[in-house]
Amino acid sequence: MRLTLNKTRRNMALLLSVALVGAVLGFPSAATAADPTCTTASAVTTCTGETSDTAKYEIRVPDDFNGTLLLWSHGYTYVAKIPAQVPLLGGSGNDLRATIAPGAPDDMKMANALLNQGYALAGSGFAVPGWNAESAVKTNVELIGVIKKKFPTVKRTVAWGASLGGTITQRLAETNPKLIDAALPIMAFNNIDRVTGSNGGYGTDAVWLFKMFFDPTIKGFGYTAGPAGFGEAAADFGKVLAAVVAIQGGLQKSGADTWPATASLVPAAVKAALPARSALLMIGLLSGMPLRSSSFDGVTGTPIDTSSIAAASASTSANTGFSLALQPALAVAENMVNIAGFATFARYDLETQVGNKNFADNQNVDYAKKLSEDERATYNVALSGEAGIDGLLALVAGFKQAAPLKADADALAKLKKLDTMTGQINVPTIAFNNTEETVEFQPMMSWMIEKANAQHAAAVAAAKAKKKKAPAKKFAAFWGQPLDEYTKFNAAGPVVQSDTPGTGHVKFSFPQWMDMVRLGDMTARLKRLPSQAILDLTRESDPNWYPAEDFDADTFESIGS
Questions:
Q1: How would you classify residue 130: left for phi > 0, otherwise alpha for psi between -120 and 50, otherwise beta?
Q2: DSSP β-bridge partners for residue 433
Q3: Which residues contact 125 (CB under 8 A, 6 or more apart)?
Q4: Which segments within 163-198 are labelled E, that is strand?
Q5: What pLDDT score does 10 carry?
Q6: Which end of the chain has less Cβ packing within 10 Å, N or C?
């Protein structure tokens, strides 16, 4: 996504009151593209204009241009402006400003650093917000033509983009490989049906389970057409946040006091026996959510007071309890906030594109099978023991029997047609994802790796059959990861962190972004991937890169979707 969804604020009481305002979408009509308007200042030529579909674009070329153009595709933008009163996301959405690098145009640090290194930068805001992969590819094709006509000194083009922008980058490489020399799809969103549609799926499971456990008034699926539906999505986002706040506020309590008042479907006996944090963790496990977040590493315990033997004993017990019982639930709470924005506002957009019908279905999901024996053992304490685990799974089975999600067949068929990314590798490609990513989660990258490996194996076999030299690999994968321990504390407790590399959504350090560009530039110059030695050295040089390509990641099959 273009937006960061995990900027958790300390004053979470504000989340309990959400005023909603409807929004009307307007789409500009097509026009003939004009030549760009250009100015030069501070040794950089900046050109702006619109493509024929009215997408605003920007091009910046430094005087010491090194010949490499970096074409950036930004991520998902919500289809309408979110009302200012909505916490965390208020005022965002419907942003069609030209974007030439990560963070731009609001934060030009990375763009300026790249310009100073001699790279030319370009990108657009695209013609429409929302899920716009195919439209955006057409915009990029036209924009490349504009750039090469205006700047014939461009020698090579590296396409890069994050989230939906990663999908756009990959689709550009699949459909127009002759226009670019290298592709850097970063967290490319794929398999949209398996994530949000039939047979449960990551986005479907997280929202449905949260709704059933904590607030059945969350609509979540089948939003009303038009501005009313966008208001429903905003209300749902507010309800998720309110329930998360209530759970966080009850962490030091016991029994029924740990549960939000909105958890009306959970029997009183269950509330008295199980803390809400155990149910929240169960949601994370069943949906395949990362159990480390930007603030919580899942390992670090609370500080130990060594001022006396008694204090050390008490604080050691608290340290262990926080690490084993609380950290996993706190991580899920933070990650759920990340997911909620996509799972409400983006779902509304996707439903609009498929006829304003629900496409999510979990009728055939066996949720009990989604909890592995290893997870049962690892999180036994946090899930309140075997009795707690069995009780929670029984509740889930009851929820599904009473209120399963049933997809509209036509809407589901149309949803599948929106997912046009094939995974075909037509140009040298280096893909990136994070181990604790909350939106473009592990199976999406695993799918790309599987596709690329199968394609390469087939090419090698074909060459062998013809007694020709085996072709070189055209695909490499990089996994970003957080440090082993990063949870921080102050006198008030855990410190909220929003920019921990390897967590949240599209969180990379500045050196990691620079590594991406360096590798992409090298690939474009060589017309092939850098050597294995260079790839390995890059991974090993930064602790926020996983040191090998073959990270043991989840697949769609492993999470049962």
A1: left
A2: 479
A3: 55, 56, 57, 74, 95, 96, 97, 98, 99
A4: 182-186
A5: 36
A6: N
Lowest-confidence region among 317-326, 331-340, 467-476: 317-326
Contact 204, 312 (CB under 8 A): no
What does the alpha-carbon distance between residue 385 and residue 122 come to, in Å, rounded to a whole number? Answer: 54
Q: By three-state DSSP, how is residue 39 classified?
A: strand
**What are the Cα distances from residue 495, in Å, to 12, 134, 289, 308?**
14, 41, 21, 26
Give the torsion sign (CA, 176, 179, 184, 185).
Answer: negative
Written as one string, the DSSP assignment of 451-517 is: HHHHHHHHHHHHHHHTT-PPPPP-EEEEEE---S----EETTEEPP-S--TTEESS---HHHHHHHH
Pairing of strands 503-504, 436-437: parallel
The answer on pLDDT for 189 being more than 60 is yes
Phi, psi of 493 (to 5 degrees): 130, -155
**pLDDT-derived band of residue 354, with 50, 70 and 90 as boundaries?**
very high
Other CB atoms within 10 A of residue 13 CB: 11
Euclidean distance between CA atoms 6 and 380, whole angstroms: 27
Q: End-to-end distance of the chain based on CA atoms, in angstroms?
A: 22
Residue of 361, 488, 377 whose CA lies nearest to 415? 361
- Whole-model pTM: value is 0.92
- Every domain of the chain and the residues it spans: 38-154, 194-414, 423-434+445-561
Closest CA to 261 of 220, 216, 221: 216
In the numeric block, the tokens 């309140």 are attached to: 384
Q: CA of 78: how far to CAs of 31, 90, 128, 332, 350, in Å?
A: 24, 11, 10, 23, 11
